[in-house]
Amino acid sequence: MTQHGTIATEHMDGPAAVEAEDAFKLIYAEAFAEPPYNETEDDVAAFRRFPVQARNRTFRAALARTEDGEPIGMAYGHRLGPDTVWWDELIEPVPDDMRREDGHRTFGLMELAVRGPWRGQGVARRLHTTLLDAVGAERVLLNVHPASKAASAAYRAWGYRKIGEARPRGEGAELHDVMLLDLR
Q1: Sheet holding 7-13, edge to edge
Q2: Is residue 2's pLDDT more than 60?
Q3: Phi, psi (5° rounding) for residue 11?
Q4: Most buried residue, 56, 88, 132, 164, by most Cβ within 10 Å?
């Protein structure tokens, strides 16, 4: 566990993250209820995918808590396998060399969120660092809603670059920016 002031960040594998599922769900529900996401209780119910995602052997997570144990931020994802659909969701195709996956090359950052009262204090950056310290990949791929200006700006400041746009989870989904961070 890494301690920063009164906020601690902890790296977790899949089984540990499942043990803390309620904390992840609380953060997810609160953070993504806000614009531009506007997720409803039904959307949050889809968080039931979390334990399934956490069973992936390459799943990694980071959880931030206050000194008294209150969950305030989370990040998680897993390495992308050769059969990943992430690249197929791009509106404009990218070169074959960019989309090549082998199960080790790219870490897919699925979620990174901090509850409102703790934003602007470096918690997201600490979560990102804690998570990536343990992924063992060459690069990180993520989707971010373009109307989420603070998130997009943070990712750019951390070295990500936009490589395209996608509709995650299908045609009915809103357009998201796809960003890539080279870790080499």
Answers
A1: 2-4, 7-13, 60-66, 71-79, 106-114, 139-144, 176-182, 161-166
A2: no
A3: -85, 140
A4: 132
